[in-house]
Write a structure and sequence with these properties.
alpha+beta; six-stranded antiparallel β-sheet; single chain; 810 residues; ten-stranded mixed β-sheet
């Protein structure tokens, strides 16, 4: 392939003139920031084009279309709701609103829409989009993310109708729970704002949400995000979203604007990621249980039989009791009203009917069906749809070791089960986004998925939740809970961890600039909480191995002192702020932050490190690894501390003894200092506690607790996947956007075959190897625009230019 010499990016109006060009630039780095002087118009379609010239004179180009959103222009619509929606507590049913209109066949039609909490729209009876659970969950009193859909194919010449169904979601969440969702400051009745823009030969016509809309009845009689749905097909309203509808209707009500900033949603929406059919069923008392064979979050598409009026009840869980019955008791303990993960469906005809919930999702591997019919539903009558934000799969990590492959599968499956417009901590019990969990998960997600925009949105949620003095809650979006307990330097780690991971994956420095001031406020808050530079107000090394029940009873039985982990995370945040200040040209900030970091480091060593004994306070795997991972050790102390960590693992017969905070430090330290084989043995230990223990218990996703109590789908221990990519496959970005890459495959780790590759912004990086009789065959791919350093045992490091390479080493 010819090496690139120059490139140029230009933006053109669709079918028209060039509105901006970068001019020709030297080099192979095609990333470029469009300046603010490029005045793109609102609600307009453009095309961007990349043109490249090669070193030998060859030329190539590529282009794609994009459209702008409202860009701050006023909405012509107003917020409306159903005719009878006055008090949030009284709105349990879905809200159906419609409007008929007459139009010429448009050249282009775009629907801009925000429906709170969730919406489904249709035009002339055909569904708009293929996404689920929109509008995305945010702090709705601060920010509402509207959607834009190209609906040109749905609008007809002449009479048309648009219909929108509104669900409660987290906006009108009436659940009595510990997280104060029922008293959220944004809570109100479901409501709609939309504009249907029709571009034709005579200009643009806008059909907006206003007093000309009608409110009509519908079949969803109850919907709650933590509860489920009640659907009565006898109440279906045929033709309600078609032109010519003439049944009873009432005028809609204008309702209060939520008062938030309206912003176009740019992350990938939730779509169906995969469909699962049950692999087996059994009878438990009077009900039938169906096992789909994989723990997911999503909905079930079910075909029902029997006469009109037959009522089915469906419950969902990812746990069973010992007798094979559905176990919800260990998961619904925080929900004090209504049902939990339960749907009810009543048939409207005598013919088979197929249905799924619209405004709820469920964590499930098992589906319980209470049927009025003697014959149970067949396996073919149920299909579980796994929902997830539709980001691209970018990483591949596979080995010849079934256990390691199983752990990778659990990590990836946990993440895809928890990404539903925010980073839910679990799929069943809470559905809230715990901050610390997200910080621990982000790096591996960016190896496995193209999740940059997802995290940009999530960081906006985090900034929106931050108080002026820097304090943050432990869940975001927060309805008001989590500011005054269970949060600290540890659980606030994503304030620096997530932007840095995104920056390293993409090379886009804007993510640091957007979050810089918030990070400074976080550092100031920790400074105010410090005594002699030591902080102690966080959650700690949560969920280290313990015996007995979970849910706060035993989850704090960890060995690493909270002041050790908190001070380590404070130091990491200040060091990150110093690094960002340098990159962003804030030299005065950089100097002050450097001095603060040095002071924290000295205090940590003074209070927690015994150089004579070579012990860190707590003398455990987590605290020892934290001293190494966060850079508190002097160079000459490193070998002894690495040896001490190894001894602590040996003292546990090769087992792990860390919680979620220690996991990040221990695995990285073992990888950094060449103890990959020991880490893999710990991960794959055949008995409790280990990742393999979960596998052997039948897990398909990561669990919350090492002993199996708590949730059976938690992503907080998923950084093990990043360990695989970085230290087993050996791919580690050393410069933003993978412009410099360290390739350090663990060819002596005991795994015979490893396939490891990542699709980056520059192209695909690969580092794979196979053990052969005459050595280890290594295959390398370095994308254009990058350089790589290959590090192999007992060999001189090799600097590799872009291209593919095959080596045989001993």
């Amino acid at each position: 392939m010819e090496e690139q010499k120059q490139f140029c990016v230009e933006i053109n109006r669709e079918g028209g003139e060039t509105v901006w060009s970068s001019d020709w630039r030297e080099g192979a780095d095609n990333s470029i920031e469009v300046p603010d002087t490029c005045a793109l118009e609102a609600c307009t379609q453009y095309r961007w084009r990349l043109k490249v010239l090669g070193q030998n004179g060859g030329a190539d180009s590529a282009e794609a279309a994009f459209s702008t959103g409202k860009r701050g222009t006023p909405w012509k619509g107003i917020w409306i709701t159903g005719a009878e929606c006055t008090k949030p507590d009284e709105v349990k049913q879905a809200v159906y609103v419609r409007r008929a209109f007459c139009a010429s066949k448009p050249r282009r039609a775009v629907l801009y829409i925000a429906g709170l909490g969730y919406f489904q729209a249709s035009i002339n009876g055909r569904r708009v989009g293929d996404d689920y659970l929109s509008t995305a969950y945010t702090a709705y009193d601060k920010r509402v993310l509207y959607r834009a859909y190209d609906v040109t194919e749905l609008v007809e010449e002449g009479e048309n109708a648009i219909g929108v169904v509104l669900g409660n979601g987290f906006y009108n969440c009436f659940t009595k729970d510990p997280w104060q969702t029922a008293t959220a400051p944004w809570r109100a009745v479901p409501k709609l704002l939309c504009e249907l823009q029709l571009d034709g030969p005579d200009g643009r016509e806008v059909i907006a949400s206003d007093a000309r809309w009608d409110s009509v009845p519908g079949p969803i009689q109850f919907n709650g995000i933590r509860h489920g749905e009640v659907y009565d097909a006898r109440l279906e309203n045929p033709g309600w979203d078609l032109p010519g509808y003439a049944n009873a209707a009432q005028p809609v009500r204008q309702t209060l604007d939520p008062g938030a900033l309206l912003q176009l949603m740019e992350m990938e929406p939730i779509r169906v990621r995969q469909k699962y059919s049950p692999v087996r069923r059994w009878k438990s008392g009077d009900v039938w249980i169906y096992d789909i064979g994989q723990d997911i979050s999503g909905i079930a598409n079910i075909t029902f039989y029997g006469p009109r009026g037959s009522t089915y009840s469906i419950r969902y869980s990812d746990r069973l009791n010992d007798d094979g019955s559905l176990n919800l008791d260990s998961l619904n303990s925080f929900i004090e009203n209504y049902c939990f993960q339960t749907d009810t469906y009543t048939k409207g005809t005598d013919a088979p009917e197929t249905w799924h919930a619209s405004f709820a999702y469920y964590g499930m591997q098992y589906i319980e069906v209470t049927s009025p019919q003697e014959e149970p539903l067949g396996l073919e009558d149920i299909e579980a749809w796994a929902l997830c934000n539709d980001f691209e799969d970018r990483g591949v990590f596979r080995t010849s070791d079934a256990v390691i492959n199983g752990v990778q599968h659990m990590a990836v499956s946990s993440v895809t089960a928890c990404c539903l417009n925010t980073m839910a901590s679990d799929t069943v019990r809470e559905k809230s986004s715990w901050t610390g969990d997200t910080g621990l998960t982000c790096e591996q997600m960016l190896y496995n998925f193209g999740a940059e925009q997802f995290f940009v949105k999530w960081m906006q949620d985090l900034r929106d939740s931050q108080r002026p003095g820097g304090g943050m809650p432990c869940i975001v979006p927060s309805p008001g809970w989590g500011y005054n307990s269970i949060t600290g330097p540890d659980w606030c780690n994503p304030m620096y961890e997530v932007p840095w991971d995104v920056y390293m994956a993409t090379g886009d420095i804007r993510v640091l600039a957007e979050n810089y001031d918030a990070l400074l406020r976080h550092c100031a808050y920790m400074r105010a909480m410090a005594v002699d530079e030591i902080v102690k107000y966080g959650l700690g090394d949560w969920c280290a191995p313990f015996d007995g029940p979970s849910l706060y009873v035993n989850m704090t039985k960890f060995k690493c002192p909270v002041e050790v982990s908190d001070t380590a995370f404070r130091y990491a945040a200040v060091c990150a702020a110093e690094r960002w200040a340098g990159l962003l040209g804030r030299s005065q900030d950089e100097a002050c932050l450097h001095a603060e970091a040095e002071s924290i480091r000295a205090a940590f060593r003074k209070h927690f490190y015994d150089k004579q004994k070579n012990h860190v306070a707590g003398d455990c795997q987590s605290s020892t690894a934290m001293m190494l991972y966060y850079g508190f050790a002097e160079h000459d102390e490193i070998p002894g501390l690495v040896q001490r960590l190894s001894e602590l693992i040996d003292a546990k017969n090769g087992h792990l003894d860390f919680g979620v905070l220690g996991m990040k430090s221990v695995l990285n330290v073992l990888g950094q200092y060449g103890l990959v084989k020991k880490a893999l043995q710990m991960i794959a230990a055949p008995d409790y506690p280990s990742y393999r223990y979960w596998l052997d218990q039948g897990a398909t996703t990561l669990w919350e607790c090492w002993n199996g109590n708590g949730s059976h789908c938690h992503h907080m221990f998923s950084d093990v996947s990043a360990f695989f990519y970085k230290y087993v496959g050996g791919i580690l970005p050393m410069a933003p956007g993978y412009r410099e890459i360290l390739l350090r495959p663990a060819i002596n780790c005991g795994i015979a075959e490893v396939e490891c590759r990542v699709k980056t912004v520059l192209g695909t990086v690969e580092c794979s190897y196979i053990a052969q009789e005459d050595g280890v065959a290594i295959h390398i791919a370095v994308p254009h625009g990058a350089t790589a350093t290959l590090v192999l045992p007992h060999e001189t490091n090799r600097v590799l230019a872009p291209g593919t390479y095959d080596f045989l080493t001993h």
